[in-house]
Specification:
One of its GO terms (biological process) is proteolysis. By secondary structure, the chain is of the alpha+beta class. The protein is built from ten helices and 30 strands.
Length: 646
């Protein structure tokens, strides 16, 4: 009888059943496949085990840090019934170190009448990490942009009570007095007099640099130039003189201002953020479809395409006279590289032209697209952080307000602080306690907010004894012109072609609009002289024109009222209230139409690169650089002492 086991054995001895002409597998081929599969499986398993082991060890190390940090706190001894939700979490704070604040005894020189007194005074050098978790030690004014940017009217210029840093240390008070050199009864021994030949030789060798005001000595009537001339050179008797030859019976008069309506030229900068036809880019910017199609058709044969790419910049030149506006030039840039320009000739035809002068607005056309960086939600605003930290380091509220005003042009005070934001200051104090008083003065500030670093020094100009703050190159830290004359306003409309909301047709918008409630104060963008303050018949309503230095004119329109004292010829300072928001003239609601005119051409106030404030030069710049180096040396020595003490 055949059992089941015997049947299985007999079936196992039979050859494999093959179908469709397949051959039996080779034993060596089967072994090679198995070997390679086994090897790859082993390698993969080893890698996965190593990764898992590394992750486990790394996670163990990371978990040990909060546990160790919690062990150093005081609340870990609490009983279980005292534990609250979130009580074991460690808050993100930055600890203040004693080395962040140092009191230095510094020799300073102060003018006392006709004498200069050198004495040692205490100064505080603080380095503040603004992102620390602090509570305000005393109340401070809430954020008010109008108060920050407005001028301190009727306040006399500050007196230099602290003086300047002296070049060397003094142990006690030293008095220095400077007197004029005596011209009579000279108590000094006189040197021997020069002979006539020696005098003539000195004049001959130094005659090229001798001058009387703007006139060279050789051109004076009482000097014979040939007497001191070399034998081989003739002396030019007209050297140093300037003359204007006017024909007989001809008078020269100053040019008179043209009162008739004149043509105004403006450049409209249009950034292209996605691929599109040129006509679409123009119509999206407010140009009539007929004008957009016409310019696109004229660009096509020169450019070879009627489309622009993302990152391109269109520059449209517009000539406007009254209510009429026409396009006379069009350019295309790829980044800042000029691709083409077409311009209208005398016959009104558009032909290829050369590149117009470069504008800064082309390079900054996409600046408004930069992402806004924000910090953690647990950090206060920049404004609150500065006040809270500076008050805890001994600075007075008046001094902090001064720092805020000086930083206003470079810092967004409503943004949240970042962990890396810091403020370094050097100021005079009353005693070793390091508390600032009403007589304390700020000498140096180094502020870092994000990637922006602002550093400035206090300096008294010896020419007019005015006190201001300058950067390392001797340029005033104060802005030449503010871009927004309504600090509390909301931006409504930009510079460029648009459809007029009242007239109903497209025209060039030659300024920017800031919306605010009726009666909101308007401040002067910069120091200047009022050229016009009254009604404008062209649709601007109550208008004020202020002429600034170097050909800049700012225009404020649609005001409900003009401030008292703002009349033609009056001087105004930056931040002074000159008028109030309204809707006079052609306006649909209360707003300020703000224009900036440079050498007769209206430009975009938000994109033009504005010049800096006052710049030192000559002897004043040399004295500033000397005082700046003294402060830098003093603070660097202080940092070295702190490192050595650690």
């Amino acid at each position: 009888m055949i059992t089941d086991k015997m049947m299985l054995r007999s079936l196992g001895n039979e050859p494999p059943i093959l179908a469709d002409g397949r051959r039996a597998p080779d034993r060596r081929e089967v072994s090679l496949r198995w070997l390679s599969g086994t090897f790859l499986t082993g390698v993969t398993s080893s890698i996965l085990m190593g990764v898992a082991l590394f992750a486990a060890l790394d996670g163990r190390q990371q978990l040990a840090i909060p546990a160790e940090a919690y062990a150093t706190t005081d609340n870990h001894n609490a009983t279980d019934n005292q534990v609250t939700r979130g009580g074991r979490l460690i808050s993100r704070t930055i600890a203040s170190k004693p080395s962040d604040r140092n009191i230095l005894e510094v020799s300073t020189v102060v003018r006392d009448g006709d004498k200069e007194v050198v004495r040692r005074q205490p100064f505080a050098h603080v380095k503040i990490a603004l992102a620390t978790n602090r509570v305000a030690s005393e109340s401070y004014p809430p954020f008010d942009p109008l108060a920050i940017f407005s001028a301190d009217e009727n306040i006399p210029p500050p007196a230099n009570r602290t003086g300047a840093i002296y070049g060397s240390d003094v142990e006690s008070e030293v008095s220095l007095k400077t007197i004029s050199f005596p011209t009579k009864d000279i108590p000094f021994q006189l040197a021997g007099s020069m002979s006539r030949e020696e005098v003539e030789e000195n004049v001959r060798s130094n005659g090229s640099v001798l001058a009387d005001s703007n006139t060279q000595v050789s051109a004076l009537y009482y000097v014979d130039p040939r007497r001191f001339a070399n034998d081989d050179d003739d002396v030019d008797l007209t050297a140093g003189l300037a003359a204007r030859i006017v024909e007989e019976n001809m008078s020269v008069s100053a040019s008179q201002a043209v009162t008739a309506q004149t043509e105004e030229f403006a450049d409209d900068i249009i950034p292209v953020r996605q691929n599109m036809p040129i006509a679409t880019a123009l119509t999206n910017s407010g140009y009539p479809k007929a004008d957009a199609d016409s310019i696109s058709a004229k660009i096509l044969p020169v450019f070879g395409s009627s489309d622009v790419s993302s990152g391109d910049v269109l520059r449209i030149g517009i000539l406007q006279k009254g209510e009429q506006a026409k396009i006379i030039r069009a350019s295309i840039y790829r980044g800042t590289k000029h691709l083409l320009t077409i311009a209208q000739n005398d016959r009104g035809d558009f032909i290829a032209g050369s590149a117009p002068p470069m504008l800064d607005a082309i390079a900054t056309a996409f600046d408004n697209d930069a992402p806004v960086l924000t910090a953690g939600r647990d950090l206060p605003s920049v404004y609150d952080g500065i006040y809270r930290a500076a008050l805890s380091y001994g600075m007075s509220k008046e001094m902090i307000a001064q720092v805020v005003k000086l930083l206003a042009s470079n810092v967004d005070f409503q943004a949240q602080l970042k962990p890396t934001d810091s403020l370094e200051a050097f100021f005079s104090v009353a005693d070793s306690k390091g508390q600032a008083t009403a007589d304390s003065e700020l000498l140096y500030v180094n502020a870092k907010f994000g990637d922006t670093v602002t550093r400035f020094y206090r300096f008294e100009d010896p020419t007019d004894h005015s006190i201001d703050y300058f950067d390392e190159a001797g340029k005033s830290i104060r802005q030449f012109l503010l871009r927004n004359p309504v600090p509390t306003g909301i931006f409504k409309s930009g510079f460029g072609m648009r459809r007029h909301p009242i007239l109903g047709f497209a025209r060039m918008h030659t300024g920017v609009d800031w919306s605010a409630p009726r009666g909101t104060p308007i401040i002067a963008a910069g120091n200047g002289i009022v050229e016009k303050a009254g009604w404008d018949s062209g649709g601007f309503g109550n208008q004020t024109l202020i002429r600034h230095a170097n050909g800049y004119v700012s225009s404020y329109n649609h005001q409900s009222a003009i401030a008292k004292g703002v009349t033609p010829g009056a001087k105004v300072v930056q931040g002074q209230v000159i008028g109030f928001i309204g809707s006079t003239g052609l306006a649909t609601g209360p707003h300020l139409h703000y224009e900036l005119i440079v050498n007769g051409t209206k430009v975009d106030p938000l994109r033009i690169r504005l010049p800096g404030g006052k710049s030192l030069d000559g002897e004043a710049l040399a004295k500033f650089q000397e005082e700046r180096k003294r402060i830098d040396t003093l603070l660097s020595d202080d940092k070295t002492k702190q490192v050595a003490s650690k």
